[in-house]
TrEMBL record:
InterPro entries in the record: DNA_helicase_Holl-junc_RuvA_I (IPR013849), Hlx-hairpin-Hlx_DNA-bd_motif (IPR003583), NA-bd_OB-fold (IPR012340), RuvA (IPR000085), RuvA_2-like (IPR010994), RuvA_C (IPR011114), RuvA_C_sf (IPR036267)
Gene this chain is encoded by: ruvA
Family annotation (Gene3D superfamilies): 5' to 3' exonuclease, C-terminal subdomain (1.10.150.20), Nucleic acid-binding proteins (2.40.50.140)
Keywords: ATP-binding, Cytoplasm, DNA damage, DNA recombination, DNA repair, DNA-binding, Helicase, Hydrolase, Nucleotide-binding
Subunit organization: Homotetramer. Forms an RuvA(8)-RuvB(12)-Holliday junction (HJ) complex. HJ DNA is sandwiched between 2 RuvA tetramers; dsDNA enters through RuvA and exits via RuvB. An RuvB hexamer assembles on each DNA strand where it exits the tetramer. Each RuvB hexamer is contacted by two RuvA subunits (via domain III) on 2 adjacent RuvB subunits; this complex drives branch migration. In the full resolvosome a probable DNA-RuvA(4)-RuvB(12)-RuvC(2) complex forms which resolves the HJ.
Ligase listed as a keyword: no
Swiss-Prot/TrEMBL domain comment: Has three domains with a flexible linker between the domains II and III and assumes an 'L' shape. Domain III is highly mobile and contacts RuvB.
Protein's name in the database: Holliday junction branch migration complex subunit RuvA
Principal location: cytoplasm
A UniProt-annotated Pfam family: RuvA_C
Domain Helix-hairpin-helix DNA-binding motif class, residue spans: 71-90, 106-125
């Protein structure tokens, strides 16, 4: 099993990145490929090596917590790798874990591909199996509030902006991008979903 890859990023698309590891290009499907766009030099991606009859695929994550949570999610009946990837693209690992602990079905059903029955199965199957994943962050109370923001769309922008600045984007780049993006952000959007859209827009220039 391939547990992680380390090497330079050579290409990215909407759903995956390509890494060069010792001269071999590995296609790795990620929750948010564009988050890697500003990285230079070698990157480390924690992976899940998924094998089925008609395909062998790699799914990759920036942290062990996301890797572990992904592996727990695909143990739930009705959640395959693609749905699990969508869950992680729609919410942070800490937010998803907290929602499961709090039995917050409203939050979980806002995630891509998750209906009420699947949300209930997630809670039933995983509530007692997530020890060691994001515990330190949850214990601080930083992620106690898991309801998706329902205020004006611009309310999530300050958080997204700070995250983008940390990745190396300039004030002028962010100001130009926001003039377009703000028309495509809705009250129910989370900071994570807006971040993914913003990164794609910054990378593609559209």
């Amino acid at each position: 099993m391939i547990d992680y890859l380390r090497g330079p990023l050579v290409h990215l698309e909407n759903e995956y990145i390509v890494m060069d590891v010792n001269g071999i290009g590995y296609r790795v499907f990620c929750p948010n490929p564009f988050a890697w766009a500003k990285h230079t030099g070698e990157i480390t991606v924690y992976t899940h090596h998924h094998v089925r009859e008609d395909a062998i695929q790699l799914f990759g994550f920036p942290s062990r917590d996301e890797q572990k949570l992904f592996r727990k999610l695909i143990e739930v009946s009705g959640i395959g790798p693609r749905v699990a990837l969508g869950i992680l693209s729609g919410g942070s690992p800490e937010g998803v874990i907290t929602a499961i602990y709090q039995e917050n079905i409203t939050f979980l059903t806002k995630l891509p591909g998750i209906g009420k029955k699947t949300a209930q199965r997630m809670i039933l199957d995983l509530k007692d199996k997530l020890d060691g994943i994001g515990d330190a962050l949850i214990a601080t109370g930083l992620f106690a509030q898991t309801e998706l923001p329902m205020a004006a769309s611009g309310d999530v922008w300050p958080e997204v902006r700070e995250g983008l600045k940390a990745l190396g984007y300039t004030e002028s780049e962010l100001d130009r991008m926001w003039q377009t993006l703000k028309h495509e952000v809705f009250p129910e959007d989370t900071a994570d979903s807006v971040m993914k859209r913003a990164l794609k827009m910054l990378y593609t220039g559209s």
